[in-house]
Amino acid sequence: MTTESSPGQGAPQEEHGWAFRPRQSAARPQPYREQQQTEPDLPWDVRSPAEPHGRSSGTRWDATMPLRFPEPGADAHEAMPEPGRRIPPHTRRGNGSADQESGYPSAATAVLDRAALRRPEPVAAQPQPPAGAGGKRAGKTKWVGRTALALAVLAAGGAAVVLKQEDDATVASRQLTQAWQIPAPATDDALIGSWLTDKLLVRAGSRGGLRAYDLTDGKQVWRAASFAGAAKLGTVPCAMSPTLSARGIGTVAFGKDGSTCTWLAGVKASTGKILWSMPLTSTKHRSAATAATYLQGDVATIVSENFLGGVDVRTGSRVWGYKARGHYCNAYDWGTDGAVLVDDFCLDRKTRFTLTAYDGRTGKVIWRKPESAHSDVTHFLSGSPLVAAVHTARQDAVRVFDTTGTGRKLAVGDDELTTGNNTGADHSVRLYGNVLVTPASSAGSTVIDGFDTTTGAKLWTQRSAALAIPASGADDKVYAVTTSDSPQLITIDPRTGRTTPVAGLPVGTGKWSFTSGTVYVTSDGDVLVLNALGSNGGVRLYQ
């Protein structure tokens, strides 16, 4: 085992660290449903005045400014009076605290352990009746249910184009079988995140820690090592970047449980070596908080209740940090690859409410919109173009925002956009050109929806299928696994929704094994399944 000093390790710690503490814990995200609110919301919270938050001259923020903590008394900002504040479900926020103490890890080295496809259902105005025996529909399709937005491309005359589903008995000639299985570390283990390289699966779990497995035989290759002071800081993964940099480096946050984080590390995926580490708590922010981390090139963003900013994924050095608009501000943040959204309320500014988009790589403002009340982001689907499910006092809508912050609604209708495995580890939503492909729920069934981000139209819906993530991350085909009793790996044309069978999977595994966000397709065409919960099993490879 070798040891390297962590870049920047031992450098003087700055008293002023990151920028702000945006929010307290909130509930796990609920499925997004587009809806209109015709009645006023219930009265919102009115909170007591706060102490000055940060320092600001009112000038435009400069990306070269250091990341900074709020001034003493910043915790009082949680009591800031916020007219119109309403808190709907958000990304997963945990409770609990862990005080920051000295002894953040220096470089650590991993321990090596070598010891009847059917075509998709494009745009339908109402849910369809349950399938009959064998998955066939009984009789003619009957449209029932509540009124919904038309899920269709609008023609020049304003007519909605509705396409019908056609059943197809096509089956794949290739059949996959289970090659190996890794048992779950515990029944209560929760998937935090994962990376897939050409040789390894790297999995982070709340009970299993951070480990890498050989794709050839499923044997463990490395496990992130412990270090001095780990018991005080916590060694449980709590956040993981969805992707790796071109150099094979990703970011992982750790804490005392799978919900709150006390430190962030840069990890080399091939070896498990911790290249650098940095605290996510301080003497002014002692409580551990939930966090999320994303990569855009060589810059990693940290989006949490304590901190918001970007660091160099190679060294951990600071690249940019958030700066509040005024002295008396309350801010709420959301992130994804490439962008960060901040909704704020500043008592000492003429424009009290704003929604601002920041470039995740540079921290520069992409656009800023004045608002009449708070906006809440229930799902952040894409950073470029920026696509988010935004809740306001009057309306829920999934919008595609241009460079000025003007939004165009997606025709979501009655479908509910969801994370497929209901955890923060699901990052299966992705763009294929100008088509956004996302897991969803329709009439209680899992579906995959395709949307044109230029027009906002829904292009197609594939029922009873789970999105799969291609290993390369750059494949122009949508991969999915059907969740029927006879599951198959299929590809979906992102523009037309037409399906093509690729390989069959063992009969009877679909309903309990495959959910969006837990299925990979390797470079060899094998199917790798990671269950989100230990109670559903461990990791399986089908080849």
How many whole angstroms does the radius of gyration measure?
A: 24 Å
Going across the major beta sheet, what is the strand order?
4-36-35-34-30-31-32-33
Q: How many β-strand stretches?
A: 36
N-to-C terminal Cα separation, in Å?
33 Å
Count of separate DSSP helical elements: 2
- Unreliable segments (pLDDT under 50, ≥5 consecutive)? 1-81, 84-121, 123-168
Coarse shape: globular
- The whole-number mean of residue pLDDT values reads 75
Biggest sheet overview: 8 strands, mixed
Q: What share of the residues does DSSP label as strand, in percent?
A: 35-45%
Helical content stands at: under 10%
Structural class label:
mainly beta
Give the tags:
globular, mainly beta, 543 residues, 2 helices, eight-stranded mixed beta sheet, single chain, six-stranded antiparallel beta sheet, 36 strands
Q: What do these coordinates show?
A:
The chain has 543 residues and is mostly beta strands. The chain has two helices and 36 strands. It has helices spanning 230-233, 510-513; strands at residues 32-33, 35-36, 111-112, 178-182, 191-196, 200-205, 209-214, 220-223, 236-240, 249-255, 263-268, 274-279, 291-296, 299-304, 308-312, 318-321, 329-336, 339-346, 353-359, 365-371, 376-383, 386-391, 395-401, 407-409, 416-417, 430-432, 435-442, 445-452, 458-463, 465-470, 478-482, 488-492, 499-504, 519-521, 527-530, 539-542. Strands 4-36-35-34-30-31-32-33 form an eight-stranded mixed sheet, with no helix packed on it. Strands 1, 25, 26, 27, 28 and 29 form a six-stranded antiparallel sheet that branches. Strand 5 (191-196) and strand 6 form a beta hairpin. The longest helix is centred in the middle third of the chain and has 4 residues, at 230-233. The radius of gyration is 24 Å and the shape is globular. 48% of the residues are buried.
